[in-house]
Amino acid sequence: LIVLEAIKFALVFIQTSLKEYTEIQNWIKKLEQEGFTDVRVCPIPPNQDLPEHIHEKHTVHIILSGGLEIIDSEGTKTFHPGDRVEFPAGTIHKAKGLIESGKMIIGVKK
To answer: For the whole prediction, is pTM greater than 0.70?
Structure first.
């Protein structure tokens, strides 16, 4: 019985991992078709402040898991899984990961 439960758990884990992998690959393909380059998955560290900074190129962030708080000239916004946020080149902003760790896809465009 214990072995059967372990097998069920492993199958759920594999299906979840395959689903996440497929989602990531679909986003990467979509962003590359839109002209983004250097598209990659990055961690969102929990409760970590990223100081004010500027991206030299137009940048896109797709939140996969966890969450990200962005502070810019328009105020504070919170982004969750499935959300897309873009920064035109030269946009000044700060960021902070939410309570749980997460992942996001990042890409840049000239």
So the answer is: yes
